[in-house]
Amino acid sequence: MHGIRKIFAIGSIVVCFAVLVYAQGDSKEGETIFSSKCTACHTIGGGKLIGPDLSGVTEKREEAWLKRQIKEPDKLLAEGDPIANGLLKEFGVPMAPLGLNDAEVENVIAFLKGSGEGGETQVQTSSYFLPTLLISFLIIILFTIIGLKSGRKNSSVTI
Ligand code: HEC
After folding, report:
1. Among candidate residues 46, 26, 39, the one with its CA nearest the CA of residue 109
2. From residue 46, how far is each of 15, 34, 68, 85, 152 by CA, in Å?
3. Which of 6, 45, 116, 122 has the most CB atoms lying inside 10 A of its own CB?
4. pLDDT score, position 3
5. Whose CA is nearest to atom 43 of ligand 1?
6. Which residue's C-alpha comes closest to atom 12 of ligand 1?
7. Distances (CA, A) of 3 to 6, 8, 17, 77, 159
8. Ligand 1 within 6 A of 42 CB?
9. Cβ(69) to ligand 1 under 6 A?
10. What is the pLDDT of residues 24-66, one digit of tens each?
């Protein structure tokens, strides 16, 4: 009984740690995508280039809108989206679709969130804290249930 609990406790700590590391990897990958595919037209806090300064954009816009703007800006414009069309008027050129897949779009958004004001520390606290906490809790609960079940099996054998 005791041994099993110990194994599950250690197991859940390891999983939580893995989730944390994984979440940080997301934003790192987003940074790579951003610097290779977006910096020709955007800065974060450095002013306008061909496109708008993206500092604070994750607070200014809905996440679903951001995803579409990054993944398929041409479709947003074609649908007559008022924000996209307003930006087009302001900047004179439309943003071209860059062919990113959903995971890449999410990584870039994670990076944009983190690079708001607090830099790296914000990545860890604001954008990842809650989801990581939730996932960790779910995993701990799952491990506890599994642990209790196998504990019960053991005791029924000894009785
Ligand atoms: C060829 C230049 C160009 C590239 C490359 C480009 N953008 Fe844009 N982007 C624009 C322009 C111009 C606008 C404003 C007009 C529009 O929305 O079509 C814009 C608008 C945006 C907006 C909306 C900003 C706001 O204020 O709501 C976001 C978000 C954005 N781009 C993200 C990205 C990301 C992320 C990348 C890289 C994956 C990227 N862009 C690459 C030119 C570009």
Report:
1. 26
2. 38, 14, 24, 23, 61
3. 116
4. 73
5. 95
6. 51
7. 5, 9, 21, 60, 19
8. yes
9. yes
10. 667 889 999 999 999 999 999 999 999 999 999 999 999 999 9
